[in-house]
Amino acid sequence: MKIAVYPGSFDPMTNGHIDLIRRGTELFDQIIVGVLENEDKKPLFNTDERVEMVREALLDLPSVRVQSFTGLLVNFMKSTHANVVVRGLRAVSDFEYEFQMALMNRELSPTVETIFMMPAVEYTYVSSRLVKEVCRLGGDVTRLVPQNVLVKLHERFGAPA
Ligand code: PNS
Question: Which pLDDT tens digit goes with each residue over 44-66?
Fold first, then answer.
């Protein structure tokens, strides 16, 4: 059984994340979306909200599970019996940070492999940070996030006029 963890902050989940998870379901028997509990970083949505939004958006994918985690990713991997980390690479600018994380995780747990996947081209510029900024300033992000996330964003920031 090939189990992968797709970890992240998901504050909030975007269509880019969903695209990657859908692609991952073709490669792995199970994907566990690991939502980092990083309340000290003051996320827009608390952990429960982020987990719920991811769950709702992925209801049609039976091989996907959603779980929050704290502490080291490699410890979460052990507890879930997964040995593959899936991360998305959108552009070269993502590479350095991702490369460091992948090798640090390998240092901490040599059996953990990191696999990088590219989202569909139309999502290569989409990030949770930009989605929040655009929405906060009244821009339309309808095409960039799932419907349930759009509703939550509008609850926070108001719908565009
Ligand atoms: O979506 P993000 O914020 O880019 O995801 C980053 C994440 C959650 C993958 C990373 O911060 C992480 O794994 N945090 C858990 C703590 C940890 O294991 N740190 C060492 C990683 S090398």
Answer: 999 999 999 999 999 999 999 99
Per annotation, catalytic residue among 22, 23, 55, 90: 90
Of the candidates 41, 123, 59, 133, the residue with the CA atom closest to the CA atom of residue 90: 123
Q: How many Å lie between the centroid of ligand 1 and the Cα of residue 8?
A: 6
Q: What does the alpha-carbon distance between residue 27 and residue 44 come to, in Å, rounded to a whole number?
A: 32
Query: Which phi-psi region, left, alpha or beta, contains residue 123 (left: φ > 0; alpha: ψ -120 to 50)?
Result: alpha
Cα–Cα distance for residue pair 85/82, rounded to 1 Å: 8
Task: Count CB-CB contacts under 10 A for residue 35.
Answer: 27
